[in-house]
Fold this sequence. Notes:
The complex is a heterodimer of chains A (407) and B (414). Chain A has helices spanning 3-24, 44-59, 77-80, 144-149, 152-157, 208-220, 251-263, 275-286, 371-376, 383-391, 394-406, and strands spanning 71-72, 93-96, 113-114, 117-118, 133-136, 174-176, 195-197, 297-298, 311-312, 320-322, 340-342. Chain A has 407 residues and is an alpha+beta fold. In chain A, strands 3-2-5 form a three-stranded antiparallel beta sheet, with no helix packed on it. A two-stranded antiparallel sheet of chain A has the order 1-4. Chain A has a two-stranded antiparallel ribbon with strand order 6-7. In chain A, α2 (44-59) crosses α7 (251-263), α6 packs across α7 (251-263) and α8 (275-286) crosses α11 (394-406). Chains A and B meet through α1 and β4 of A and α1, β3, β16, β19 and β20 of B.
Amino acid sequence: MKKTTLLFLYGAVLVFAAVACETMLPGTPADDALLDGPIAELTPEQNALFLAGDAAFNNEIFTPATGLGPTFVATSCGSCHAGDGKGHPFTTLTRFGQSDETGNQFMHQGGPQLQNRAISGHTPEQLPKGATFSNFMPPANTGLGLLGALSDEQISANADPNDKDGDGISGVPNWIEPPHFFKSQWYHKPQNGKYIGRFGKKAAAIDLLHQTVNAYKQDMGITSEFDPEDPINYAVSGQAGDLADDPEVSSAKVNAVVFYLRTLKVPVQRTPNDADVVAGKALFMSTDCGKCHTPQWKTPQSDVAVLSNQTLAPYTDLLLHDMGSGLDDGYTEGIAKTAEWRTPPLWGLGLAETAQGGRVFLLHDGRAHSLDEAIRLHGGEATKSRSKYVALTDTDRAKLLKFLDSL
Amino acid sequence: MKHILLLWGLLLMATAQAQTDSTSAFNQLFGRDTTLRTKDQQLKLNMDATYDRPFLTANKMPVSVGGYLEANTQYMQTDGITEGLSFQMRRMTLFLASSINRRIKFLSEIEFEDGTKEINIEFAALDIELHPLVNLRGGIIMNPIGSFNQNHDGPKWEFIDRPLSSITIIPSTWSNVGFGLYGKKYTRDWVWAYEAYLTNGFDDQIIANNQNRTFLPATKANRDRFEESFNGVPLVTLKSAIKRRRIGEIGISWMGGVYNKFQSDGLTLDKRRRVDVWALDFNTTLPMGTYINGELVWASIDVPSTYTQQFGRMQQGGWVDIVQPLVRKRMLGWNKAVVNAALRVERVDYNVGTFAETGDPIRDDIWAIVPGISFRPSPTTVIRGNYRYHWQTDLLGNPPARTAGFQFGFSTYF
Lengths: 407, 414
């Protein structure tokens, strides 16, 4: 073969590659197939802050040298929220020590969270004798900013503690004692020095800063300027923290993570106009599921422009509801009773499978392995709705489930 | 990216008549050994790679020098997101060798990676031959685990990226201070060799690192490892290889030791925790000239049971390269120019096991396929283009992140 022919062929291969590269490079997955990514129309400054928070949340891996543990649950934020989605049973955490509204009786023994893992050479925390506990599956992160932008008045408006309307549903807010670093905002409306909690399985975190600082400390053993004390393993000694200098993460980084969580996009519903999905939504409402899983909200003015005056469909009322003895683990937080759980948002539900490794682990501890099973495990205030669901024909149940899967 | 590839391709076609032979005068001035992949190589083993390099010697000076350089450009994209076009100066390595005596020799290899981001002495050892079967080697050595760790020079490969399992399970280039023995036994068509070394070893960064997985290369960040052992327990590395002329070579190797600091000042801090790595390497050339080269590796790490399952207790991986010479003749004035087609298939699983909570498999793995084409104007220089596609699955087994892209670069001994 002549050298000119050879080089011509070699060049031709590259030309072919150039032409083909657009189809040979992996494209962007559909927007409705992903949970991560920023809310649209952030400013350049906000994009930079989002990216800083993204890096801290997903890429910063803590080690003993940077303050991990010595007892912990996970080594990074992203370990528990793959793709910003729901967690997996291997990162399920355990809370313990509070069985009524009088508070946690085991704070002096490491409450409220069990750090069930430890760095090399250290002993994980053990559940104290006599402590009631509950396992919590990490939730998805998406859309938290819009939920955080709602006002306390909006949330309280849906409360019906004495079930005045007689529908068997009596949602109540969880009133939480604020941590010292909490700053009250215009949309808060405290009662007796307490604020409405809206994040977490029991709605024990008032805002995303509260949630983030707690997660750094309780999940990873990372101290911050907001909370500079390591979790202590009292089984070892009252001084059994780590040897890294405190604070182990800066306020700037914590704030960036909070901004990241606030500005993660909301899940995009798939096939909203599909006839079965439309019919399923109607069945969802007619079975009164929507009485707790409130389908629509509108945010008031916010400090972040793109969070202001947004209509959202999270399918939650952010209130506590008695879910019956079947879901009563005997553990609680704030003023919630042990059988009471905050209504979890349903948006992003259909993408749980792609964040939980191809299976689904639903309800607060992941005990339900399908949407149908999760619904059938509802009790307490949801008993009537569950009965209506069970009474549906197979076809209608399938439509309702298809609607949930589209979220 | 598309435009750059187009431009490059058109440029190559337009300059197809260019001819040059600039090396002859240079080689007349210096004696250069350019015996790579010649018949003399038929009984050379991977373990010989350290000395099996082209060196320059001026007149009768006892010192010879050499080195290699590799650089490339790449355009990669992950799930629709690209960081754009990058130009990378992967590494420049300098060799300095000296025959102190007929049976005493010294060689050093200093590498500058990613510009000057990393500067390492990868090899600096004295070899004393007591008998062909008993050679003493001491200094900074490259542990003989697998084949790639010792035989990693860029110009020998048709691929721009190093094999994943060889750099992320075996932490190539994995060099340590220590000493040991090696030897060879030749018959007419066979050669058998062994290597046995005691060196400093790993540390607890292999399970405490910013990769969020068991990652043996994390130890390389410990700058003190050339000064003192992390825990006082030597890492043992053993390798045996056998090769038959015209058939090929197969090697089996193991390295193991304690990676954690289990005591300090006489006080117990932890139990001794082991890391063990096994590797199998092989290469052969088929009658039609097809060169097949591969390496399989397994690692077992005693991760504390109370640590997170994020960090694998067992890892495995491997790669197979197939290189097919398409044209081997005088081209553009180069007498022994070769055009090769190449294909690499590789996999690495950083966490072999199942979740305690669900019994489901733990993933955290990568599959990759890398077709490529290379042009070797001489055996010591390669110009190569690769297309890389890989699938990275997270720990939980969620849909994989897909990364693909084009790489174009060169590597040459000098």
